[in-house]
Design brief:
The protein has about 150 residues and is α/β, with parallel strands linked by helices. The protein has a single domain, classed as Rossmann fold, CATH 3.40.50. It has 4 helices and 8 strands. Strands 3-4-2-5-6-1-7-8 form an 8-stranded mixed beta sheet, sandwiched between helices.
Length: about 150
């Protein structure tokens, strides 16, 4: 049984945080689906991930290509990612379910702490997962480094 990790972004960009989390996931041997809500936003994220540091190559692709099933990291709008992920990372308010938390190694929810709508969406997701008895952790970077602030 996995857990949901909520990442409250206040200092680092979404792309920088994803690079860190995706790198750790790949080190664990996990396939990851990065689930978004808009195709244009996923395309922008794709470009940002390709433009990362040279020593931090992050193999990934956008869903809809011929090799989706082989992608270690697949950016997708779909809840049934073709790469059979061990981990789902939700961006831009993409929904996650308690069933996914129970079935996958990890579910990560990244949200912009400077956006009131993103905060409301994350709070709703936290409450829904908590009410479904899913394991969850809330992480904040307000001090300049990631610290666990709450756990269900």
């Amino acid at each position: 049984m996995g857990a949901a990790y909520f990442y409250h972004l206040t200092q680092r960009s979404q792309a920088d945080t994803l690079r860190m989390l995706l790198g750790k996931s790949l080190e664990n041997g996990w396939r990851v689906a990065v689930r978004g809500t808009e195709g244009a936003a996923l395309e922008a994220l794709d470009r940002a991930l390709w433009l990362g540091p040279e020593d931090g190559f992050l193999p990934h692709g956008i869903a809809g290509g011929p090799a989706d099933a082989e992608q270690p990291v697949l950016l997708t709008l779909d809840t049934a990612a073709a790469n059979d992920p061990h981990c789902v990372m939700s961006v831009d308010g993409a929904q996650v379910s308690s069933e996914e938390v129970g079935r996958l190694e990890r579910v990560c929810v990244l949200f912009d702490g400077n956006d009131p709508m993103a905060l409301d969406t994350a709070r709703s997701q936290w409450k829904a997962l908590k009410n479904a008895s899913a394991k969850a952790q809330y992480w904040s970077e307000e001090s300049g480094r990631w610290e666990k602030k709450a756990e269900t």
